[in-house]
Sequence to fold (164 residues):
Amino acid sequence: MSYKGLLTELKYESVGTRKLLERIPEGKLGFKPHVKSMELKMLALHVAMMPDFIEPIINTNEIDFAGMDFTPPEVKSTEDILKIFDESLKKALALLEKADDKTLMDKWTAKMNGEVVFELPKISSLRSMTFNHLYHHRGQLTVYLRLLDVPLPAIYGPSADEQF
Fold:
C-alpha cells in the first residue's frame, strides 16, 4: 500500500471517528464501565490524538516509549475533544500528503527501555500503531457510548440507532 492509500483511508475513517466523538455526552467524561477501564475522557482523548502518532513514525527512525513524557491536555467538554481531534487530523493529513513511498519503506523501530519491541517498515508501523490502534479504541468508545445509552452513528453501515 502506498502513502496515497493511507491518506485516502485516514480521510474516510476520520468522518466516522468524528461522528463518534461528537456523541460523547457532556457531564459523562468521568464514566468508567469497569474499574480496570480508563475514563471516557481519556479514551476519547486517546482516539482524538491518535493521528498525532503519524508524525514520529514518519519523521524519526525509532522511538523509546519509556522516554516519552506525555501529559494529556486538559479537556472539559466534548467540544474540547473535537478541537483536539480536528487539529491532530489536520497535521496528520499534511504529513501524509508530503510522504513518499521510499520514506515509508524505511525501517522504524519501537523500543521500551532501550530494548527493541519491533522493527517494521514505517508504512507497517503506521498501519499497526496508528490506524489499527485507532480502530481498536474507536470500537471501545462505541461500547462506552452504548452503555451510556447514547445512539451510535452509522459508520460502516447502519447502526441499531441510525441509517445512513
Notes: The helical segments are 3-22, 40-49, 54-59, 78-98, 101-105, 122-147.
